[in-house]
Specification:
With 161 residues, the chain is an alpha/beta fold. The protein contains seven helices and five strands. The protein has a five-stranded parallel β-sheet with strand order 2-3-4-1-5.
Length: 161
């Protein structure tokens, strides 16, 4: 954890990438709790929930207010990046929203997809390259591939029965 000690002060991102069940969300939440304990403001969301908030704010004409709040958090944790693909409109909204923080505030991304597969999510190579560039610049990239802890636990429980 010492490696991450100043990531918020340095406005560095963290990308936790790996197979489902390897502890990405667990680690992201732990870092978020530690940040809260150090009096940083933290916002946790799934990508799906964030897109829903952005779309609702746009339709209610309160998007700028949402963007302003989003920009002010010291740390934003975006969970489940890559589980659901989105249309071009959603991809552009997400890109614009996350770009507000680029180089200024810290963001943690959890994803089950390697960067070379992010085009599957965004559906556009140029947009994908731009978002990967912004999120990974000076970021801590953590490979969390391995076996699922949930599957291991299920196998252990089944063997005890």
């Amino acid at each position: 954890m010492a490696k991450f000690k100043n990531f918020i002060q340095e406005a560095r991102n963290i990308v936790l990438a790996g197979n489902p069940g390897t502890g990405k969300t667990h680690l992201a939440i732990a870092l978020g709790i530690k940040a809260c304990l150090q009096d940083f403001t933290v916002f946790f969301t799934t990508i799906h929930a964030l897109l829903t908030k952005i779309r609702e704010a746009r339709s209610e004409r309160t998007l700028r207010q949402l963007e302003s709040r989003f920009e002010r958090y010291d740390l934003v944790i975006c969970d489940e990046f890559g589980y659901i693909s989105f249309d071009k409109d959603a991809a552009e909204l997400l890109f614009t929203h996350l770009s507000l923080r680029a180089g200024r505030k810290s963001t943690i991304i959890t994803t089950n997809l390697a960067f070379d597969r992010w085009t599957e999510i965004f559906g556009d190579e140029v947009l994908t390259a731009a978002i990967v560039d912004r999120l990974t610049h000076k970021a801590h990239l953590i490979n969390m591939n391995g076996d699922s802890f949930r599957v291991k636990e299920s196998i252990q429980m089944a063997s005890k029965q």
